[in-house]
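ARCHIVE CARD
Drawer: 12
Card no.: 0347
Subject: one protein chain, sequence and derived structure
Cross-reference: see card 0346
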Amino acid sequence: MAFDSEQIVEQIAALPEMAIASHSGEELTGLWPLTSAERMDNDVKYAENLQVRITLAMAQILTGEQVTMPDAEFVYEGADEIPGRPQSIVDALLSANDAYEQTEDYSQTQDPALLFDAAKTLSVDWDDHTQAQIREILGDFSEYVKQHTADNTDIAHRFAAILLVFSRMLREIRAQIKQQIGWDTPRAGGAPEDRVQVFEKDSLPVILLVNELAEIASVPRLCLTADQFHGLLTAYATPNGDTSIADSTIVLAQALLPLASAEWKKHREDILWDPEEAKRAAKEEDERKNKEALAAKFAHVKDDSSKPEVEL
């Protein structure tokens, strides 16, 4: 990475929000290597559920319709139609799953063609210039990882580098859209909704790429809902959004780091989930609620002091 990029990585790594997220990430990665069959099975289930959650969000962005978890689960399990549900939602989920699987090998091959194929699957049209810029950005990231592998760089710096790639790619995609549809005309009240929707759809492949970069850098994976992704991109779509790369990356990081921390805590809890302990806790909770309900029911009944005490 260029010197200015190294400086930005240092700035992002030093954010207070990064300290909190890094702690969550270290607690999660500290579980590895997973040794028990139960924990390994839980991690596989987390990964499967992650694909369902991500493709659900992508389909929602593609269609603008409300996609449900059962919708996403049915398509993940192989359905190509769902009785009573719009085919547009099913088709969007099918495309999202195809794109997800097309990018799965990127962390191994680091071949940008996989990302561009996924973009086509999602009907995203990145022009030659944008693709060339993305190739350069990804090349810079690969060099950063190679240079810092021997340094045993901490998770804060590795994740900061990913956030910088995220920010740089969003800026390139935004630049292409601005050139195509010309959104430089000042508007009051922030970015119009149609502009944000175009930006969201054209940025969809980046959601998949970020997790592949996380795999390369040994950083836990992320998951954003459609609403969360919408919130992240709204600031980039404003007419006055042409701040420096450092400033825009800091804004992106401050919005994304709490979401990353929450996801990493969830991932850890999912791995540590014990079905027997969950049953026991549920039973105890039911008993507690029953006792409270009985106590409330007979709270109006007063003790009769004339009756002798009964020793137990």
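Annotation on reverse: The mean pLDDT is 89. DSSP finds 13 helices and no strands in the chain.
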